[in-house]
Specification:
This protein is an alpha/beta fold and 359 residues long. The protein contains 15 helices and 13 strands. The strands form three sheets. A seven-stranded mixed β-sheet has the order 2-8-7-6-5-3-4. Strands 9-10-13-12 form a four-stranded antiparallel β-sheet, covered by helices on one side. It has a two-stranded parallel sheet with strand order 1-11. Helix 4 runs parallel beside helix 12 and helix 5 packs across helix 6. The longest helix has 23 residues. The protein binds 4'-deoxy-4'-aminopyridoxal-5'-phosphate. 4'-deoxy-4'-aminopyridoxal-5'-phosphate (PMP) binds next to helix 5. The site of 4'-deoxy-4'-aminopyridoxal-5'-phosphate (PMP) has 13 residues, from helix 5.
Length: 359
């Protein structure tokens, strides 16, 4: 038996590595990044701010000042705290680690299609993932969800709000009914990665629902490279999750950069507002193209359905345009492409090239 066979789990050996395409020289509209950089004067001031950070010291693992700023600027209810992660990706790993009991297999539930890391992280931690298909209009299939909760008694239900890759918001009444149905079984995580573009949140419901967790990130706001996620819940839940968090998981440069950014949150909020306007403009323009269905989005991307999506995607690639072909992810996404909202100029360029590729 080879070393690899001897030590690496068979299910890991069979996996493909998470693939990120090389995007140098491409019109990059595939990863829900904010296309705007910081204004130049702010870049300079951020540079000066970071120059004073003590790189020789470990971070202080309580992250007290950073957390206080997050609570103050990002709408965390009074009396509620957050824990921080190296992106919300790491928070998902932390949740999986804390829930992976040894005495019985715990289950993770989510409507599908949704963000792939819920299932992947569950699998790595030894949890069973149960995916319940959304309805054809991407709303929650409440009968099937409630049945799955009764049958599988999941430890956690993930609801991406808005959902990726469909872009829609689930009905709040449905979400509250699921939180209620889960109250003796497990937690419900409202993953609000796209909250800056949806402008709605489950945050205000935290005090009423001890099994509700709200997870967010600064990635889509314009700080994807910085890697910071945060998560709020009852103090009792947060204390348990915090025990499995690596103590220095957020580095001092990230800590300082996010504190600086939150002192200038208006700049990011303005960028999010123009991306929301651009989303409406791009959606309207796309829906005038022949054979294109644009799905309603509350995120910084739009999903379109068309015939021969694979061929159009390949043609776009040949013209150095990178979007995401989600058609093979799930049967409900057959012939769907996901387009991240760019600057007005990028969106114009995309529209021209997309229209040309349809011909
Ligand atoms: N949640 C959802 C729904 C996402 O789509 C993403 C990123 N695509 C994440 C979480 C991860 O975000 P982060 O950059 O904070 O790891």
């Amino acid at each position: 038996m080879s070393l690899i066979e001897n030590i690496i789990r068979p299910d890991v050996r069979e996996l493909d590595a998470y693939h990120v395409p090389d995007s140098a020289g491409y019109l990059k509209l595939d990863a829900m990044e904010n296309p705007y950089r910081l204004p130049e004067d702010m870049q300079k001031r951020l540079g000066e701010h970071l120059a004073h950070v003590a790189l020789n010291r470990y971070p202080v693992p309580s992250y007290t000042a950073l957390k206080a700023k997050i609570r103050e600027k990002l709408g965390v209810p009074d009396g509620y705290d957050v824990i921080v992660g190296n992106g919300s990706d790491e928070l998902i790993v932390i949740v999986s680690t804390a829930l992976a009991r040894q005495d019985r297999r715990a289950r993770v539930l989510a409507p599908v299609p949704t963000f792939v890391m819920y299932a992947l992280s569950a699998r790595f931690a030894g949890l069973d993932f149960v995916g319940v298909p959304l309805k054809a209009d991407f709303s929650l299939d409440m009968d099937a969800m409630l049945e799955a909760i009764r049958t599988h008694r999941p430890s956690v239900l993930y609801l991406a709000y808005p959902n990726n890759p469909t872009g829609n918001l689930f009905d709040v009444k449905d979400m509250l009914a699921l939180i209620d149905a889960m109250k003796d079984t497990g937690i419900v995580i409202s993953d609000e990665a796209y909250q800056p573009f949806a402008q709605t949140s489950m945050m205000p419901y935290l005090p009423m629902h001890p099994n509700l967790v709200v997870m967010r990130t600064v990635s889509k706001l314009g700080l994807a490279g910085v890697r910071l996620g945060y998560m709020s819940a009852s103090p009792e839940l947060l204390a348990e999750f915090d025990k499995v968090r690596p103590p220095y998981n957020v580095n001092v440069l990230t800590e300082a950069a996010v504190e600086f950014a939150l002192d200038h949150i208006d700049v990011f909020n303005e960028q999010a507002a123009s991306l929301r306007t651009e989303r409406e403009n791009l959606s309207a323009a796309l829906s005038t193209l022949p054979g294109i269905t644009v799905l309603p989005s509350s995120a910084n991307f739009v999903l379109v359905r068309l015939e021969n999506a694979d061929r159009v995607f390949e043609k776009l690639l040949a013209r150095k345009v990178l979007i995401k072909n989600v058609g093979k992810m799930h049967i409900l996404l057959d012939n769907c492409l996901r387009i991240t909202i760019g600057t007005p100029e990028e969106n114009r360029q995309f529209l021209d090239l997309f229209a040309a590729c349809l011909r």
